[in-house]
Amino acid sequence: GHPGLGKLDIFVAERKGGEITISHLGKPMNSNKDDFAVFMYSPDRGFFSSDRPGGKGRDDIYTFKNEDPNLKIVNYFLEGVTTTHNSDNDEVILPGVNVRIFSQDSVLLGEILTGQDGKFNFRVSEEENYFIIAERDNFFTTRQTFSTIGKTLDKSQLNSLITNKVFETEILLEEIILDKAFELENIYYDFDSANIRADAAIELDKLVTILKDNPPIKIELSSHTDARGEAAYNQDLSKLRAESAVAYIISQGIDPSRIKARGYGESQLIIENAQTEEEHETNRRTEFKVTEYDKEIARRIREQEEAQFKKGTVEVEIKEEKEVPKDASTDEFDFN
Predict the structure, then answer these.
(1) What is the pTM of this model?
(2) Closest CA to 50 of 23, 10, 2, 12
(3) What is the pLDDT of residues 68-85, one digit of tens each?
(4) Going from the N-terminus, what domains does the chain have, and what CATH number goes with each?
(5) Is 334 left (phi over 0), alpha (psi -120 to 50) or beta?
């Protein structure tokens, strides 16, 4: 234990930047007897128990007040809403989303199931990095990063005893629609090559994260060329590029049975008779689409989570640690 004045002592713990600092409160909060069971009934007032001399019995209840004229308390909160796109591509509220917040080192800190308003709220600490995972059946599980680093308020500039600082965010979840294509941006290859470049690997890592966060899905990754050159050559090149991308994804720990490569060459041009380099670039693309959504896997995952964590419409503080893949990309994929 930490050194004190004797027997049970009262300490204060301050969390900042992911580290917790423990401090002894000293006298008169502590004595050489048992001092324990602090309860705050207002921001600057509270009770504690002690069997120190001068009381009325064995353990007595004492009251205390923090009279520091410079005392300022800042509470930090992250508030957000979960949304999706409807059939008209308008953004609308999405209820019933399980939202979890993790520390940077993948420890689960809180969990909430959003209500009809789609809102969620977590208490956060100053100078820390977090990531959020939001999931609902038949929707892509979405990962989002958040940081309070550099956003701490200067207490010397505050007038009120208590200040609540609220950060706002929005989490967009896209519905899983079989065979709907999503383009992977910035997947470039050197001329006449199917090798994965470093900049392309960064984008493919986002797809790796999607697959790790969404175990029920299987996908097709496809490569498309522009219409310049021989059609047969373009077909072969696109096949090699798709296979190269899939091989990279499998090397990152994805089960080969969950992903297949397809090369379409110039058979699915977005812009027919492209003339400008920009139009050719639009035709050259890498896409993925969900080919299968295993509802049985989704059901088992949901049952496991429901058994492990109590769900409600308020924040749930989780004492035990739950880890997510540490090698998953922290960048989220933009489905738009």
Answers:
(1) 0.74
(2) 10
(3) 888 999 999 999 999 999
(4) 11-65 (no CATH), 73-175+297-317 (2.60.40.1120), 181-293 (3.30.1330.60)
(5) beta
